[in-house]
Amino acid sequence: MNSASETNILSVTGITKKYNSKIVLEDIAFDVHRGEFLTLLGPSGCGKTTLLRILIGIEKPDTGHIIKDGVDLVSLPPSKRNIGIVFQNYALFPNMDVYHNISYALSCQHYPKEEIDQKVREIIHYTGLDEHIYKKPSQLSGGQQQRVAIARTLVLKPDIILFDEPMSALDADIKIVLRKLLKDIQKEYHTTMIYVTHDQEEAFALSDRIMVINDSHIVQLDTPSQIYHHPANAFVQKLVVDHLNEIIRSIESSIQ
Asked: What is the rounded CA–CA span in Å between residue 167 and residue 203?
């Protein structure tokens, strides 16, 4: 049987964060399984993005620990955590083409040019960007820009990739294509993914487990099936189950 340290890539304990007198996160504790897709689901302002920013190192918690491979990350800068992040607004360099947006971080880490070229072209091909390799971000659609952002993070082969509502500005058809890409990446690279969204359907389509957050606390952490069939309380019932049932009824009525 695997030990907890072999099964879990991340162990978060006692994370609390306040802004002035407002508590944003209170005594947050959870483990992240190695290679899983974990989604943080909850309404706007519940603390999801703050937790993500603490994991990557953009924010520091007031209390608590983030243990990865036996090391507490809380005092480490983002560059030392081997965790990548994909933002909602893509955050691409507007003056660089696709190739150089993806290669930039590798260049900063002084990889040999031949190795950079090999890694970048492999990721570009994998994410379906071959025909856009020398285009600037302004010449790409939103979905294509998000593929570049994903490729730029993936090329560094981080242990964990964080996603901060990366599809919220995209059309429904593009979302479906990108969902498949993310699940393919998880399977191909065995990458652990932590994903923030307020979209229940998206959470259920992508996740191995879902962490439902409300008012600075974790209210349920379980598989999509368990959350749907056994909601922890009335909040989860309304946020997740009732909403999904409404979508199902809408689909059924549209095909009658």
From this structure: 12
Place of tokens 């507007």: 94
Count how many Cα atoms sit within 13 Å of the Cα of residue 10 in the half-sphere of its side chain.
26
pLDDT at position 254:
76
d(CA 243, CA 236): 10
Closest to 181 in 3D by CA, of 145, 204, 152, 206: 206
Tokens 């979302």, residue? 175
Asked whether 124 and 102 are in contact (CB, 8 A), the reply is: yes
Average pLDDT score over residue span 59-70: 96
Amino acid (1-letter code) at residue 127: T
Report the candidate in 243, 250, 213, 211 with the shortest Cα–Cα distance to residue 227. Answer: 211
Pairing relation of β-strands 37-41 and 192-197? parallel
- Distance CA(112)–CA(216), nearest Å, equals 45
What share of the chain has pLDDT > 90, as a percent? Answer: 81
pTM of the model: 0.92
pLDDT, tens only, 148-171: 999 999 999 999 999 999 998 888
d(Cα 23, Cα 47) in Å, to the nearest integer?
9
Mean pLDDT of 46-75: 95
DSSP secondary structure string for all residues of 239-252: IIIIHHHHHHHHHH
Output helix, strand, coil percentages for the chain, rounded to the nearest 5: 45, 25, 30
